[in-house]
Amino acid sequence: MPLAARAQEAWPSRPVQMIVAFPPGGQADVTARPTAAALERVFRQPVPVVNRPGAGGILGSASVARAAPDGYTALMALSSLGVLPESERIMGRSPAYTLDQLVPVARITADPTVLLVPAASPWRTLEDFIAAAKQRPGAITYGSAGNYSTLHVAMAMLTGSAGIDLLHVPFQGGGPALTALLAGTLDSLASGPGPALPHVREGRLRALACWGRERIPGFEEVPTFIERGHPEVEFYIWSGVFLPVATPAPVQERWRQALRQACEGDEALKRALDAAGSPLAYQDGEAFRDFFREDTARLVRAVQRIGRVE
Question: What InterPro entries does the database record attribute to this sequence (predicted)?
Fold first, then answer.
């Protein structure tokens, strides 16, 4: 048997890294950790999650794009992955990575974002929030995981539809932005439902509306923007696994099979994501590639509408 074939059959023969391009506590991290634990049971190798934040997700994503294409470094990405190269171009910079350097393997979750405010805030409904923003243009703050991040794009959709002006405060990731909201130093935030759910259940945060076409499990009392008269405000944070594009096809297929096995058969993974309010929405192969292409095109159009952010 040729050496190359034996090497492929033996893969993986050492630990496999899963890179999260954001700090701990955000949506990518919440998804990556139980997914990595499930993959350890499939691969029979350690799958450490490595947080590599910076520049709204650019640094960690670029590190995987440039990694050795041997399958031992993967990226747990969010939908911002497709937006960041375009935002760099808008800002007059050369992108740190391009989408043709990465290959989509599988989508794990796909959650509508939720509009959150501190429970101590005076806004009990979406209409309260919009009315206050109209009374005080530019005074109410909202956080994001960085300029042109998914959380920024989601809020830009709302401000455009509602005709309001909010003050954008970028952070290094969704986790730090959520921490600031909990501390009361931030007025509002678009968040994935997973990180938000425990704080809403504990009464520390209030959810005013969600960006989904339908209400979200765990947030059944929270209306959609569509219900409240904003039909164009629809947005999802999805998480998915990507590899360097030159990763050998048999290794890509091993990843796809392992992720499918984990997502379809690992009850601990399902329970962890359900408990986090971010249920599985598995997709792989051509279906995920088509979804990624279409979603990226839509988000790039939104970023182009935002334009240059100084």
Answer: BUG, Bug_dom1
- The reply to whether omega before 118 is within 30° of 0 (cis) is no
**Domain residue extents for the chain:** 3-111+238-306, 112-210
* pLDDT per residue as tens digits for the range 74-108: 999 998 899 899 999 999 999 999 999 999 999 99
Q: Among all chains, which residue has been given the structure tokens 């998914």?
A: 150
Other Cβ atoms within 10 Å of 52 Cβ, number: 18
Domain 112-210 homologous superfamily, CATH: Periplasmic binding protein-like II (3.40.190.10)
List the structure tokens of 124.
């009990």
Q: Where are the alpha helices (DSSP H) in the chain?
A: 3-10, 27-43, 58-65, 84-90, 126-135, 150-162, 174-183, 193-201, 249-265, 267-275, 285-306
Classify residue 234 by its DSSP letter: -
**How far is residue 215's CA from residue 291's CA, in Å, rounded to a whole number?**
21
- The shares of helix, strand and coil residues in the chain, as percent rounded to the nearest 5, are 45, 20, 35
Alpha-carbon gap, residue 168 to 14, rounded angstroms = 43
**144-199 pLDDT per residue, tens:** 988 888 788 899 889 989 999 999 999 888 889 999 999 999 999 999 888 888 99
Same fold, 3-111+238-306 and 112-210: yes
Question: Yes or no: is domain 3-111+238-306 CATH 3.40.190.150?
Answer: yes
